[in-house]
């Protein structure tokens, strides 16, 4: 593969992503939101995060070192989120703790 092809793919993918993300902002900005849309915007992120946590924890062998690392990372993630109320910081910190434990 040459660099021109890769750059073209990146540009096309970026344009397609931008084109699919922009219309909701244009359509729904500045007007009263439907109650269903308000419900979805409020409760969808926690539901998705819950599904991801359950999916991650279902395949962990809790009697191994990896299970202990997963529990430690989960405690760090939940603790930081309850303390700081910053989802990005808590997710990054929990992931970092898990990766440091695995590599150590």
What does the model show?
With 104 residues, the protein is mainly alpha-helical. It folds into 2 domains: 1-31, no CATH class; 35-103, no CATH class. It contains 4 helices and no strands. The chain has helices spanning 3-28, 35-58, 65-84, 87-103. The longest helix has 26 residues, at 3-28. The two termini are 37 Å apart. The model has no long low-confidence stretch (mean pLDDT 91).
Overall morphology: flat
CA radius of gyration is 20 Å
Largest sheet: none
- Mean pLDDT metric: 91
Regions with little confidence, pLDDT below 50 for 5+ residues = none
Helix content range of the residues, please? over 70%
Please give the domain count: 2
Distance between the termini: 37 Å
Beta-strand content: under 5%
- Tally of contiguous helical segments: 4
Structural class: mainly alpha
Element string (H = helix, E = strand): HHHH
| Secondary structure: number of strands | 0
